[in-house]
Write a structure and sequence with these properties.
Distance between the termini: 27 Å
Number of strands: 0
Shape: elongated
Helix content: 55-70%
Structural class: mainly alpha
Number of helices: 8
Order of helices and strands: HHHHHHHH
Length: 144
């Protein structure tokens, strides 16, 4: 997961909720999270919203909640390499190293190939010194 400053999509502008956010009662991040949560209450398997919500929760530092979202996405889309990669990131951020490496393996086996991003992603910092992580990179990094 990246920690970009912009969410993937913004809720519609206007209305009392938006006014409350702009008045400083809620940050934009908190407003977006609340908005997407309300969508998920009506449509719990809405994949695009789950992806956004996971990103936002990670950005907020709500790693346990982001992990729950990433687990839901992995159950819905078990062969999606980006979903598996994000799950690995959430697991790593929660200190679940062995599970994170297993999810990262799933991501790589499913076709994740952005190795430059993987090697720079701070979400995976907890794994860098793990022998299993290093072995995984040796196995999957393109041979030059």
């Amino acid at each position: 997961m990246s920690a970009s400053d912009e969410p993937f999509a913004h809720p519609p502008k206007g209305g009392a909720s938006s006014a409350a956010a702009s008045a400083g009662r809620l940050s934009q991040l908190e407003f977006d999270i609340a908005f997407y949560e309300s969508v998920l209450q009506r449509a719990p398997d809405y994949v695009d919203v789950l992806r956004c919500q996971g990103e936002l929760l990670t950005r907020k530092g709500s790693h346990a909640q982001a992990l729950a979202i990433d687990k839901r996405l992995a159950a819905l889309l078990p062969d999606d390499c980006v979903v598996q990669y994000n799950l690995a990131c959430s697991l790593a951020l929660m200190g679940m190293r062995r599970e994170a490496i297993a999810a990262l393996r799933c991501a790589l086996e499913a076709g994740y190939d952005d190795f430059d991003y993987l090697e720079a992603d701070s979400d995976l910092d907890a794994l860098r010194d793990e022998g299993a992580y290093q072995a995984l990179l040796r196995e999957f990094l393109p041979k030059e």
